[in-house]
Each structure stands twice: as C-alpha cells, then as structure tokens.
Amino acid sequence: MNEVPQATIERLVVYYRYLKKMAERDLEDTISSKTLGDAVGTSAAQVRKDLSYFGEFGCKGVGYDINSLKKCLERILGFNRVREIALVGAGNLGRALVNYQGFKEMGMEIVEVFDCDIDKINNRVGRLTVRSVNEMEKIIRKRNIKTAIIAVPEEEAQGVASSLVKAGVKAIWNFAPVALNLPSEVVIYYEDLASSLVWLIYKSGHGNLKVNVK
Ligand SMILES: NC(=O)c1ccc[n+]([C@@H]2O[C@H](COP(=O)([O-])OP(=O)(O)OC[C@H]3O[C@@H](n4cnc5c(N)ncnc54)[C@H](O)[C@@H]3O)[C@@H](O)[C@H]2O)c1
C-alpha cells in the first residue's frame, strides 16, 4: 500500500464522525461521495481518493453503504479497540485533555496521569488520580501502554520523553514547544495550537504578502 498522507487520515476521522451521525439518524442507507464531500467541506474526488488507499468501497451510481463504510473506517483507524494512553503533566492543558470526552468514542482513553508536583500527586483530575512521575516507567511498563501525551514545560519535555521511550512507549503526542531527540522508530506528533491560529490569521489578512529575505 502507498504511504497514506497525514491529511488523508485526518479527513477519514471527519468522514467517520459524519457517517456516525448519519447512522444514528438512520434515515438513509447509502451516501454518495459528493454528499459526503459536501458535508465535510471537500470534493467527491478527494473522498474517493482518500478511500482508495484502503481498497475498493461503494458501488458506482449507488454510493457507499453508510454502516459498512463506518465499520471499515473504525477498523482502518483502530476505533474498534481501546488504546490506553498515558499523559504527563497535570497542568492546565493536561487537565483539559483528561476531561475531554471525545477521545473515547474513537477508541482512545487516557488511563494514567503523571506529574512531579507534590501538590498534584494523589489528587484527582476528572476520574483519574495523579501519580508521581517517579512511578511512571514502572506503571507504563506494567500496563503495556504504548502511546503517551507530553504536556510539561518545554525544558522538561526531553527528559520525560526519554523516560517514556525507556518504558516502552512507541508514539508520543507532544504539546511542549520543543523538538524531541528520540529513536527513529518512535512516532512523534508535534501539536501547536498557536501555529494553527497564526496560519488562520495569516491566510485571512496577509496571505499574499511577499517579503524579501536577504
Ligand atoms: N501545543 C499547544 O498547542 C499547546 C497549548 C498549550 C500549552 N502547550 C504546552 O504544553 C505544556 C503544558 O502547558 P500548561 O499550560 O498545561 O502548563 P502548566 O504549567 O499548567 O502544567 C505543566 C505541568 O507539568 C508538570 N511538570 C513539570 N515538569 C514535569 C516533569 N518532569 N514530569 C512530570 N510533570 C512535570 C507541572 O507540575 C505542571 O503540573 C507547555 O510546554 C506548554 O508550552 C502547548
């Protein structure tokens, strides 16, 4: 299979959400690529191209069976099994992520929260009790957790990431604004809400600005 672009995976999630709503409404059995594209802000051709990475879907002239396509996307995206996730840093961002309910419907659940602050350890964040970062490696190894979120200050992120990898973590969603130096087999996704906002503002006001850098 060709390497699937990140943007395709992100769109599959959007298709999935829409199909889930359609399935819950239970008014139609099928959906065309045009209707699905229109509903999520992309073209019919893009929908077909995104799905083509994973095989053949739908019937010409009929469209896609809503429930079957939803089930296929669940399998492709791994929503049909629960992935346990550890979060490090029970601060403002960490607490918001733990309390966000939307991960669960996609088979992802934050099951452990770690922090180094003695005032936070043993306190609750949502339904979880914050554990000491000193116990992190042991607990992650024991629970066989492979995915983690880093929400600590930038100067702490590398140390935390190295400990996570030592404990067996293979995928890291990093919110700290710093590049991590980790073995190449570890997948890292750098999240930066500020850069998304900068992009938005740039596009809306200065999208055509040209600057000569000397
Ligand atoms: N990417 C984004 O879009 C985005 C958005 C908001 C915040 N951030 C980043 O996320 C991080 C957290 O932001 P915040 O506002 O929640 O900060 P915060 O200060 O509220 O929380 C940080 C938490 O990390 C804990 N901590 C510090 N060192 C630690 C260590 N070694 N091990 C375990 N826990 C440790 C602190 O005790 C604290 O509870 C920062 O790096 C910030 O820049 C990124």
Automatic annotation (TrEMBL):
InterPro entries: CoA-bd, NAD(P)-bd_dom_sf, Rex_actinobacterial-type, Rex_DNA-bd_C_dom, Tscrpt_rep_Rex, WH-like_DNA-bd_sf, WH_DNA-bd_sf. GO terms for cellular component: cytoplasm. PANTHER family: REDOX-SENSING TRANSCRIPTIONAL REPRESSOR REX, REDOX-SENSING TRANSCRIPTIONAL REPRESSOR REX 1. Pfam families: CoA_binding, Put_DNA-bind_N. Keywords: Cytoplasm, DNA-binding, NAD, Repressor, Transcription, Transcription regulation. Modulates transcription in response to changes in cellular NADH/NAD(+) redox state. NAD(+) binds at G89, A90, G91, N92, L93, G94. It comes from Halothermothrix orenii (strain H 168 / OCM 544 / DSM 9562). SMART domains: CoA_binding (SM00881). One of its GO terms (molecular function) is DNA-binding transcription factor activity. Its main location: cytoplasm. It is found in: Cytoplasm. This is Redox-sensing transcriptional repressor Rex. Belongs to the transcriptional regulatory Rex family. Residues 78-179 form the CoA-binding domain.
